[in-house]
Amino acid sequence: MGQTTLAKAINMGLRTAMEDDPKVLVMGEDVGRLGGVFRVTDGLQKDFGEDRVIDTPLAESGIIGTAVGLALRGYRPVCEIQFDGFVFPGFDQIVSQVAKMHYRSLGKVRVPIVIRIPFGGGIGAVEHHSESPEALFAHTPGLKVVACSNALDGYAMIQQAIASDDPYIFLEPKRRYWEKAEIPDGFSVGAADPLHSARVLRPGRDVSVFAYGPMVRTAIQAAAVAEGEGRSVEVVDLRSISPLDLPVITGSVARTGRAVTLHEAPVSFGVGAELAARITEACFYSLEAPVLRVGGFDVPYPPARLEEEYLPDLDRVLDAIDRVASY
Amino acid sequence: MTATQHEGLSVPTATRRLSGAKAMVEGIAQEMARDPEVIVMGEDVGAYGGIFSSTTGLLEQFGAARVLDTPISETGFIGAGIGAATEGMRPIVELMFADFFGVCMDQIYNHMAKIHYESGGAVRVPMVLMTAVGGGYSDGAQHSQSLWGTFAHLPGMKVVVPSSPYDLKGMMISAIRDDNPVVFMFHKGIMGLPWMAKNPRAVGDVPPEPYEAPIGPAAVVRPGGDVTVVTCSLSVHHALDVAEDLAPTGIDVEVVDLRSLVPLDRETVLASVAKTGRLLVVDEDYRSFGLSGEIAATVAEHDPGLLRRFARVAVPDVPIPYAHTLEQAVLPTRERIRAGIEGLVGP
Which of A1, A57, A180, A273 is most buried by its number of CB atoms within 10 A? Predict the structure, then answer.
């Protein structure tokens, strides 16, 4: 399949899932005729028809609620929330219904829904279009939360999430949609890493940097710069936020003794906090420095002309690496 | 807790004993009498007086124009509250259960929390969103959650979690007078309701005059040297009970009542942990990606060398069960808190 953008890779993953299982449906705002505002569902309605690729009204609560009903009747709906900030009108369906139904029915009812959310900033968007709400979903028992960072993962992870009987929040880093990666010819999802595994993208000895989604690329860049300054930085792509792949996370800290967490979302009460807590619990005797958190500031996402100041950049990541390495 | 525990504040010391609910209503009523812009709205806040008695008597005292029973449409009446606040009123809007936040999260976060910032500071939203939290009385997965971790992660609003009748009144007054949106999360178990589990600390000393209890500082409600318990809301009461039980065994427990999660008083937490070296976070919200993680991270990023032991007692990451025995198994009960403390001081 060669060099493929993340957006195209997810598109191909959706197509493969729909070919493999006639119960897989795609629904959302502009996912059909338009093919999605980021073209992630491009061509699917043409090939699978309006019954399987459904253009919905602008009503996120309705989209998710309809998907709940479909899931209860054996379908496997994939809902697109057009932008992260629009997920809030659909929150009750997600946290009160989707997340809790399996548990409340004593396991009798399954809710195999995938909710795709293009998330994060960096594209110069207006308000409500650059949010990173992943911690809110990870804090909700009953949901699984994953974030892809590259085309190969996007292709495989969307298929794995659809195949699971659990409800998923599937986070797509919208500013990385156009970045390409190699998908080998003949690659099939059976050869992919397990969905809830983290991945050491770049081994290192001095500091572990934990990132996911859009920040993985930033972490890799920081590691390359740090190498030039004599620091060996390990980069871990979490891939799965809930559940966390603790053996990989703690194994990395056991080797390096130092940890930096990295995400776009505001730092307080975020994913980095939970990582710091888990590392504190599990790596008590190998931790040699404070766990530093790099992330968005505790303010609403800023207007586009300020977002470069808000988003963690190379300087902020390198500063954190320097501080923990020299502690 | 008594008035004198808040240093630096000139507050009256003559008090009566009031239930949490009566203290909170008194605070609201005094502000309504003082400021005609203060109004109350929500489901059953008028004739019924609030299902957790948070608004009892206000309709009779201030009339239907200022105490508004709304339809069951959270996004509608919270949106109306935001509009009133941006136009200069000071609405207190009750979300009957915090669990219902999902149906109005767009109004809460995309609007109430963001308007001040997105207007470049030109528009203020002096609104109190008060909401009942917590379980323990078999109300199931959608009526028993605490969820303060969710609200505290979203920038743009203060989040307060009072534990005592004194703070329920004083922090309510502070919240009403605050020009920021304040999410006021009160636990059903601290209101002194006859149909909830009996809780002697749900009745406490409350000064009759209006007073502000500050939003921000935590309170060391019990000093101790061996273990720090950081907690909030109803769990403060349980932690104090356990601390008293353990005192004769020679375990000296310090209890920190956070009172406010946004802003979060990290200094008090760090000072306590620096003293004891052992930290137990007790949190009635879900364990992962919430308050307990933030407290651990606060210590870990300051100086992990401060900590000799760390543990959390929180709701494991499952929905709150309906069955009483199962619910008690997941809530941070006295038994679980005691076991957590003993685990930290053991060999």
Answer: A273
